[in-house]
Design brief:
Layout lengths: L2 E5 L5 E7 L10 E10 L4 E6 L7 E2 L1 E4 L6 H13 L8 E8 L5 E10 L14 E7 L1 H9 L5 H11 L2
Parallel strand pairs: 3-8
Antiparallel strand pairs: 1-2, 3-6, 4-5, 4-9, 7-8
């Protein structure tokens, strides 16, 4: 069972830990961490989630578990979901914000990379069906067609898109 720390709207820990999936009260939030991976050409590594996770496009990310820091979470999620080892120093911090009308606070990162051969990635098949390099226009199209995870799409448009 995954345990998550609870934070208020001002991003302060409230001294409460809950099992993942537990309903949250007013002014209670969980933390999520996500990364957009961009190559030298300006394309982004986007994943299609497994059928179990909705078969929708998204970027790499996950829940910040009890006692974990957001940066540690994203390094762990990149390793778990993609089989890719990344040092914390290579991740560029983008933003931390309370997501509107949802009980969550996002920590957003960017990883600029020369090249990743998609064939060498070891996908966590329970979560990730496939991965692709796609450009900004293609991501925008997926967002418009509601084929991109809503939170990840809005974060892309507001914080990542050039």
């Amino acid at each position: 069972m995954e345990l998550l720390d609870v934070y208020n709207d001002q991003m302060k820990f409230v001294g409460k830990t809950i099992p993942r999936g537990t309903s949250l009260g007013k002014n209670e939030n969980i933390l999520l961490s996500l990364v957009y991976i961009r190559n030298r050409k300006g394309d982004y590594l986007i994943q299609k989630t497994s059928k179990k996770k909705g078969s929708i496009f998204s970027t790499t990310g996950g829940h910040v578990v009890q006692g974990e820091k957001a940066l540690t979470t994203i390094v762990r999620e990149i390793k778990e979901e993609l089989g890719l080892s990344v040092s914390k120093e290579k991740l560029q911090y983008v933003s931390t914000f309370k997501y509107p009308n949802q009980p969550c606070i996002f920590h957003v990162y960017l990883l600029n990379t020369d090249y990743i051969d998609l064939k060498t990635l070891k996908l966590e098949t329970e979560e990730v069906e496939s991965v692709y390099w796609i450009n900004e226009k293609e991501i925008e199209q997926l967002i418009q067609e509601h084929l991109f995870l809503e939170t990840h799409g809005s974060i892309f448009l507001k914080y990542i898109k050039k």
